[in-house]
Amino acid sequence: MKKICVAFGILLILSACSHYTAAIAPEQKVALKTIGVASIVGDSMNYTKVGFTVFTNENSDGDTSDWGIDDFVVSEVAAKLGKQYSIVPVEVNKQAFKASKEPIEKAAYAAIKPAGTPVDAYLLLVPTTVGDFIGGSYEKLHGLGIYRRPGHSIQIFAICDFLLIDAKSQDLLAGGQLGFISEGVTFKDILEARALSKSMMGGELAHRKIDPSLAKAKVWQEFTPDQLTEIKGITTSLLHDSFDYPLVGMGLIQ
Asked: How far apart are CA 63 and CA 44, in angstroms?
C-alpha cells in the first residue's frame, strides 16, 4: 500500500510537469532496425532575463555553434540505442528548419539531408517552446537557454523534444520531451509509477541551477570565456542526464 501511495504521488508530480510522451506502437517497433539520428538544438542559447514587469524583460542570444552540442547529442543517443539498433548520423539544414512554417515534425523531416545509408526512421532532437515553468512569468522558454529572474536561482534549461519520424511515410511514430530525475526520486520509482498507471508520462522539464555569479552578466556577450566554458559543461551534463526519460517513454530503451 505504501508503494502504491508513493507511486501515485510521483505520478501527480509528473503529470503536473509533463509536456508529452508518446510511445511507438509495438508493430512499428518490430520493423525498426536502422535509425538516422540528428540534433537541431546546439547552434545557439538564449539568455532570458525576466524583470519585475514585462517591460523589463530582456533576451540575448549566444552563438554556440562551435561547442559541438549537436555532435554530443548524436554520440549520446548512439551510445544508448546502439545495442538494439543500427545508428546512422545524418545532417540537417538547420536554417531551413528554423524558417519553415510547417508543423514541427514536417519541418524537421524536410530539413534532413539524404543519408548514404537507408534508414527505417529518423530520431531528431529539436527545440520547442513552453511557458515559464521556472518562475511562472508570461515569458516563453525555447530550446537551450539560461534563465534569470529576481528572487529565483539562475538556471540552465533544455526545452527540446525527441521526434521519431518514419523515413518513408513521414509519420510521427513517437515523441517525448526532455526531462530529468529530481533528487530523491530514482529511475526505478518512475518506472514503477508508470507501470501502476499503465501510461507513459514525461518527467520534470530539464533544468539545473548554476552558480549565482553567472547572473552578473546583463547580456550573453558579457559572459567571460571561463564562464562560457562552465555553461557549456553544465549544458552537456544536463542533456546527458535528460535523455532517459523520453527514450524510455518512447519505447526505444528500457
From this structure: 5
Alpha carbon distances (Å) from 90 to 37, 71, 114, 123, 132: 6, 10, 8, 10, 32
Which tops the pLDDT comparison, 133 or 1?
Answer: 133
Residue (of 157, 153, 159, 85) closest to 123 by Cα position = 85
The single residue listed with the C-alpha cell 539531408 is: 113
Q: Look at residue 18 and tell me whether its pLDDT is greater than 60.
A: no
Strand partners, 166: 121
Q: Is residue 14 packed enough to be buried (19+ CB in 10 Å), middle (13-18) or exposed (0-12)?
A: buried
Q: What is the pTM of this model?
A: 0.82
Residue among 70, 83, 219, 84 nearest 143 (CA) = 70
Here the contacts of 148-151 (C-beta below 8 Å, separation 24 or greater) are 148/47, 148/48, 148/49, 148/50, 148/215, 149/49, 149/50, 149/51, 150/50, 150/51, 150/52
How many Cα atoms are found within 13 Å in the side-chain-facing hemisphere of 38?
22
C-alpha cell recorded at residue 35: 535509425
| Cβ atoms < 10 Å from Cβ of 245 | 28
- CA atoms of 112 and 96, how far apart (whole Å): 9
Each residue's pLDDT tens digit, 85-138:
999 999 999 999 889 988 888 899 899 987 788 999 999 999 999 888 888 888
Q: What's the full length of the chain, in residues? A: 254
Which residues partner with 129 through β-bridges?
142
